[in-house]
Amino acid sequence: TTKAFLPTMLEINHGHIVTVASSLGLFSTAGVEDYCASKFGVVGFHESLSHELKAAEKDGIKTTLVCPYLVDTGMFRGCRIRKEIEPFLPPLKPDYCVKQAMKAILTDQPMICTPRLMYIVTFMKSILPFEAVVCMYRFLGADKCMYPFIAQRKQATNNNEAKNGI
């Protein structure tokens, strides 16, 4: 999509590029390495493109990076953080994420993390040593939050294999 629209945007120095990633593009967790890698790639693409536009002095082309926390779409159904923390970080409703993203786009915010607590996690990851980040993840229950999801997927796959005689 960017390849299709960017040349004209560059020509007229006008437009807005919105990149939808995930909070898992800013920090990772165990069990979904492939997903995290793809989201880190999306964030890297966005940052590089943003720097390229700034270097080319194309100030009429805005960029917004959207990084929501777990969105309640069913994609990661079963993902669980520590039960005491869960009330403070429930899965986000899709319409709320869209509203937050639209607000960021309309106000030319370069980045939106939803909820705002994700900024703190990202900041802490950037200043703390790795072992301290591991402790923080363990405290939040984020270190193994995908394990219930993975177990559910494995169970569903095994059930389908048994039903289909595979």
TrEMBL record:
InterPro entries: NAD(P)-bd_dom_sf, Sc_DH/Rdtase_CS, SDR_fam. GO terms for biological process: retinol metabolic process. Belongs to the short-chain dehydrogenases/reductases (SDR) family. GO terms for cellular component: lipid droplet. GO terms for molecular function: oxidoreductase activity, acting on the CH-OH group of donors, NAD or NADP as acceptor. The keyword Amino-acid biosynthesis does not apply. PANTHER family: PKSB, RETINOL DEHYDROGENASE 10. The lineage of its organism: Eukaryota, Metazoa, Chordata, Craniata, Vertebrata. Keywords: Oxidoreductase. It comes from Galemys pyrenaicus. This is Retinol dehydrogenase 10. Pfam families: adh_short (PF00106). The keyword Oxidoreductase applies.
